[in-house]
Write a structure and sequence with these properties.
Helices cover 28% and strands 25% of the residues. The chain has a seven-stranded mixed beta sheet with strand order 1-7-6-2-5-4-3, sandwiched between helices. By secondary structure, the chain is an alpha/beta fold. α1 crosses α2. The structure holds adenosine-5'-triphosphate and magnesium ion (MG).
Length: 165
């Protein structure tokens, strides 16, 4: 008989987002919980809803629901000042991982809340403890899969507040 595996806390949470309003609600959920120095890596294909989630998160943390939050597709980074700085980046057009240094993202990881679309473009420069949120198509809706390394309380809160598929 195989030895039993220790019951490690599960840190990946998966659930459906039926509409774009649910995606925005998830962004606002994180807005209330992220701290300075937290990185949220947003993965998923073009049009998955990464910017939509980031926009809702930024507006909620700023407390300004009408704030203009453009996609940083061409600027690569947009910054906001809430109680902490928020850096919203879209690295789709990054030409080389070293550009991350030129953008100042490495310093932002230490003091700001960083939201990174297309984090795979920056290779190993992504903080190891980044929260990894993947959005995938689910019919006309989306599926969210979230891995939270080293933050069991946050993973437990997510699991309590969002109903798995
Ligand atoms: N749960 C959902 N169900 C259906 N549509 C959604 C959902 N979440 C977001 N969307 C829609 O997905 C569309 C694309 O979103 P968005 O521009 O945020 O994609 P993106 O992942 O940032 O793409 P890109 O990689 O091009 O930056 C938006 O019109 C948004 O309303
Ligand atoms: Mg986007």
């Amino acid at each position: 008989m195989c030895p039993t595996t220790p019951d490690l806390p599960r840190q990946t949470v998966t659930f459906p987002l039926a509409t774009d309003a649910d995606t925005a609600r998830l962004g606002a959920w994180f807005a209330a919980r992220l701290r300075a120095g937290d990185c949220l890596a947003l993965t998923g294909p073009i049009g998955a809803g990464k910017s939509h989630l980031a926009r809702a998160l930024i507006r909620a943390r700023l407390g300004r629901p009408q704030e203009d939050v453009p996609s940083p597709t061409f600027t690569l980074v947009q910054t906001y000042v809430a109680d902490v700085e928020i850096w919203h980046s879209d690295l789709y057009r990054l030409t080389h991982p070293d550009e991350v240094l030129e953008l100042g993202l490495d310093e932002a990881f230490a003091h700001a809340i960083t939201l990174v679309e297309w984090p795979e473009r920056m290779g190993s420069a992504l903080p190891a403890d980044a929260i990894r949120l993947t959005l995938s198509p689910l019919g006309d809706a989306r599926r969210a899969e979230i891995a939270i390394p080293g933050r069991p309380a946050l993973a437990a809160a997510l699991r309590a507040d969002w109903t798995p598929a």
